[in-house]
UniProtKB/TrEMBL annotation:
NCBIfam families: PRK07567.1. This is Glutamine amidotransferase class-I. GO terms for molecular function: transferase activity. Pfam families: GATase (PF00117). GO terms for cellular component: cytosol. Keywords: Glutamine amidotransferase, Transferase.
Amino acid sequence: MRPFLLLGTRAEDDAAADEYAGFLRYGGLTESQLHRVRVEAAPLAPVDLEAYSGVIVGGSPFNASDERKGEVQLRAERDLTELVRRVVEADVPFLGACYGIGLLGMVCGGTVDRRYAEAPAATPIRLTEAGRADPLLAGIPDPFHAIVGHKEACATLPAGAVLLASSAGCPTQMFRIGRHVYATQFHPELDADSLEHRLRIYAGHGYCEPEEVGPIVAQARSVELGHVRTVLRNFVALARD
């Protein structure tokens, strides 16, 4: 069975490790089944897409819409942009989460900007008619709760993209291009424990202040977050089918 490829861009070792652990846990994967590459650490080597069952791009402190981008961000974005173009052209199973939706939206001609930023929270997500029929969302109630927290969002979908889910604060929470290329604004790999861990790393960097971490995590613990994990399990199953 071919492994999956996780492309990360988090420079903080503990945040990168926690993200990897979340995709392993809720994707039902072992370390041998999820090959991780930290794109912020070094240039991305050529990727043989046929060697992988699917590709995942996680969240990031980077934003596709940043006006000022450092050398590392520019290089990582160039590497990921080229790979995402290949993924879309070949309709390779792909799941972009948070930063991944901005990247996919930008590459495919959508509008990614700061109009629909959301503070960290567990928010209700509603499915569109297409979302209710999509296999990646099979078995998920409407609505369901998922953790969000982002400075940018896809304000206008790329041409030909299918909107699958929305929220009150962000009209594009999930979309699909072709048959196998997906992106979510919400984090399917995050639970309340990981949210707390991640917020303590990034507090004070535009997402929340340190004193806000406790109430945000308490709100996330007060709702059912188990349903969103089905997205990852479905993605793994469909990519292997």
